[in-house]
Every structure is written in C-alpha cells, then in structure tokens.
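Methods — Computational structure assignment.
A single polypeptide chain was analysed. Its primary sequence is given first, followed by the predicted tertiary structure written as structure tokens.
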Amino acid sequence: MSEHEKHAWASLIASALVWAFFAMRLTEGGWVADVSARHMLWTYVATVILMIVSHSIIAAWLAARRAGGAFKDERDAAIEARADRIEGYVLVVVINVLVVHALADAAFAGHALPRIDLASLPVLVFALLSALFGGHIVKQAAIIWQYRA
C-alpha cells in the first residue's frame, strides 16, 4: 500500500469520526436539534480544530514513517486530480439538490413529499457542512478505489 493510499485511508477514517462528532453535537434522535447559534458556532470551531489536528497527526505520522523519497509521484498526482474532480462533481450535485429543494419547497408549500427545513439555521448549517464532509469522504474513497483498480 502506497503512502498516499495510507493517507487516504487515515483521512477517510478521521473525517468520518469528526463528522460523527459534528452530527452528535447537532442532532438528537436522528433529527437536527433546534440549538442556539452559540452552540452551532462552538461546534463548528471544534469541528474545524478536530479536522486540523487529526490531519496534522496523520501527516506527521506518515512523514515519520517515510524513509525518504517523494511522498507523491506522477501516478499519485493523477489519482488525486481525478479524485478532486469527483469530489467537485459530488459537491455540485449535492448543493444543487439543496437549492432545488429549497426553491421547490417555497414554490409548492404544503406538499406531501418529505422535506428538509432549510429555513431553520441548524438544519442549513448541518446540511452544508455535511455536504463538505461528504465531498471529502467521497474524494478519499475515490483515491482508495483508484489504487485498488
């Protein structure tokens, strides 16, 4: 397993755990809780700090294990470029789904379809940050998949 693939595995696991922390702080019983803006701000700050610290630890761990040579070669760079494009596509789709959902919910009020209340600040924050986490996790999964293919 290459160092880049090890980094992708570690990042995938760390990101999923940090998202679980984020979700734990903003949800209750599987639904987004109505929390204060202060609670959301501190949760956001803690989430950012956890991502920075966890990924710094991963980078330091891999750097300490590396005997020498470049961390990424041309193949690694190409795989990461493809994974970046996939992440971008996923984020574009998810953000567009949220926008269309918000517009359709406003245009067709009272419909019987399931809805996400994007007018609620906690739900909006949760949806947007979950989209970013989802994009990052998809990127790491794409890197792993490309190394396995």
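Note: The longest strand covers residues 27-28.
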